[in-house]
Structures are given as C-alpha cells and as structure tokens.
Amino acid sequence: MIDFRRAIQVAAFIFVSAAAAQAQPALPADFKQQTITTSDGVQIYVRSGGSGPAVLLIHGFGDTGEMWGPVARELRKTHTLVIPDLRGMGRSSHPAGGYDKRTEAADLRAVMVALGFDHSAVVGHDIGNMVAYAYTARYPDKVERLIVMDAPIPGIDPWDQVAHSPQTWHFYFRGPDVERLVQGRERILLDRFYNELSAHPERINEATRAHYAAAYAQPGAMHSAFEQFAAFTKDAEDNKVTQRTKLPMPVLAVGGAKSFGSLMAVNMRNIADDVTEAIVPEAGHWLMEENPEATVALISDFLSEKQRQSGDRRMAPAEYQFSSAIAGGTGTSSVEGIRTVVVKGDPNAAGLYTIMLYVPANTRIAAHQHRDDRVATVVSGTWYFGYGDEFDAAALKALPAGSFYTEPPRRAHFAETRGEPVVVQISGVGPSDTQFINAKAEPKP
Fold first, then answer.
1. Which fold has domain 24-308?
2. Torsions phi, psi of 299, nearest 5?
3. Which CATH number fits domain 317-441: 2.60.120.10, 3.40.50.300, 3.40.50.1260, 2.40.110.10?
4. pTM of the predicted protein model
5. Which of 4, 14, 202, 436 could serve as a FRET partner for 140 with CA atoms 20 to 30 Å apart?
6. How far is CA 32 from the centre of its chain?
7. pLDDT at residue 351, as a whole number
C-alpha cells in the first residue's frame, strides 16, 4: 500500500532541496576557473569573467568567493571581475603560515599579474577589508578605487575599542582544543555569526548556511580560518607603519545600518584622504546576503563614478606627489629614476589618458616608440628631444618649460635631461606601450 503521507513528505523535501540548491551562493557558471601558484607555493583558486576595467573582489570569514555572486551578475556587463578564495579558505590551499594580510596581499598581486591585470579597483568585505587595505597600501599605484565593507582595519582607530568589544570575542577563539570542539559542529559556529551579527538572519537562507558550513568543514579549513584571526596582532603592527602614508585613491567606506554604520568611514579616514561614507539600510554585517540590491548599487555606482567624473580633477604642481609615484610605468621609457603619476584615465586601457613624468637630471633615453598617438607639454625644466631610430645628440632640440611636441604612432624618438630634472605631461589614447628600437638599449627590470 502506498504511504501517501510519506510520499507527500518526500515530495516536499525534494521541492525544498531544489529551491535551496537554486538559492545557494554562486558565481556565474561561465566564469573561468583556475588555480594560480604563488612564489611560496600557495595555490590560490580564482574565478574571473566579464569585460571592461578589472575589479578585484575579496571575501571574508564565513564566506568564500561565491558571496560576490550578486555583484558579478551585475558588474560583468561593464567590468572584468577577479574573485579569488583567500589562502586557507574556499578551494585555495592550506599553508602552515602566511596569514598576515600583507602576505595575503602578495598572493592576490600574484593572481592579478598572472591574469594580466596591472591596475584594478579593489573591493573587500570582513577580513577581505583587511587584505584589501594591505593590498592597496602595498601596491598603491596599482589600485584605482577601494571599497571596504563592514569590518575594521587592525591597528587603525578605533581598533582597540572594537577588538575589546564582547561582540568580537571570536578574535581570540582558537587553538587545538577549540578546533576539536568545533570539528563536526562548523554549522553551529557559523550560525552564531549569521544570527547575532545580522539585522535579518532569516535572509541568510538555509542553502547559504549549508553551503558555507560544508566549505568550512573541509580538512584544515577551520584551522586556517582561525589563523586569519591569529594574525591580527601582526596585521596591526604592519598597519601602524603603512598608515603613515595615506591612501591617495578614492575610497568608499560601507557599513551596515545595524552593524558598523558610519564607523566604517571614521576608520578609513585615518588612512585615506578621499573617503565617501555609505550605509546599507536594513542590514547588519552580512550586507550581500541581507540587502544585496542596495549593496550592489553602491558598489556599481562608485566604480562607475570614475568614468562619470574622470574630467573633474584639479591638481596644482605640488599635488603630483612624485615621491609616492610609480617607477616608470606604461607609456614611459622606464629608465631608472623616472617617476610617473597617472593624472587621467589608464594608459593600459582603451581611452584618453594623461601621465605626468618626473625625469631626473642627467638622464638619457634611447630611441623608442609607442603604438598610440601622443602630445606632450614640458611643465618644468629644459627637455632635450629628438626624432630618429637611434640617439643623436646633434638632433636634440632644447624645449624649455611651456614647450609642446608630438609623438606620432610608431614614430621613434629619444630625449635627455642635463643639469636639472624635467617634468613632462603626456596625453594619448590608450592602450599605450613602449618599444625600444634597439633591444639592447631597453632597461632591464
């Protein structure tokens, strides 16, 4: 005899399971998946997809890269998304050490270089904030915009207040006995974070909880997660050094209305000059799960603002900050001592760009060419410039401050400075590059 009551229960279970499977965190199925090995042998699992300017998305504890699914589905239309799992988390490997955030920043720099991205925006959440700051502070010339969401930066005020709050007891919850206690109970531990640190725990659905519980139940996963917290002391020491130089790029500091709120912007203004505050309504800490629509809109608008406001920039000569500029860079000869500030656009990407070059005194630049059409103005000093396939001092023309010259596409040219440094402004339509006519003259990296 058929047990109709049991059949109904089974059917209901199948229906709920199917719905849950559809609702679990996921990135677009067509995103490329690969594993990149860093110089110290750590394997970083990364997914990427979309088209346009690059955005590096960094997850935190209680999540993996899948948390960025809503962002990826929206931003893939206008940006290329790079979404790694941090070392020791998700599908990345579990090394014994290296959980300080500067080391993890180096992991992600290796990922970006391997994928062919020199510059990007950076977005972080939770521990991802800490890695995002370390990445941006370590490679400031590689980051165009920074977004940090609902977690403090170790060592940066009000870190002491946050680190000694009863709500952050988990910063110190680790050790072999703790791992034995949690083993097989990963879901219980994660539920504590989802329930107590959210405004709407019901919005963190069963599929999401089960998905991440399974991820953190993998061998070594919870130990590695605890090591992320154990590194906070080292992170704080590192950050007290890097905060001496404030971040120059625009920063969006996002807090959940029922979590960090405006404190996120207070935190970031200690380490960045250009900070915009934003608050996600109807959300605690788990912004992407509790209010994905508002969170995605904030991220999308801030990243798009670069294009909308790219013409609205005013800089006096003292603001070029050559002391913190990049060495060489795309569209320059990269001769030793040359420093570059990107004033507008990106010479690596399609579109208009302007770069400002500081060239030290007594610098000689061999004949080279660029693929794009460029115009230049001498801002200060006297620049000696000539055209030809090899350096010819007799062909140089003295160009004092205020002089103008052109660098047509594939037109070889050369230059030098003499007794004083020179500042030159160059504009072109990217992407740009540099090719030396004589390969032997090309500077060695």
1. Rossmann fold (3.40.50)
2. -65, -50
3. 2.60.120.10
4. 0.67
5. 436
6. 19
7. 83
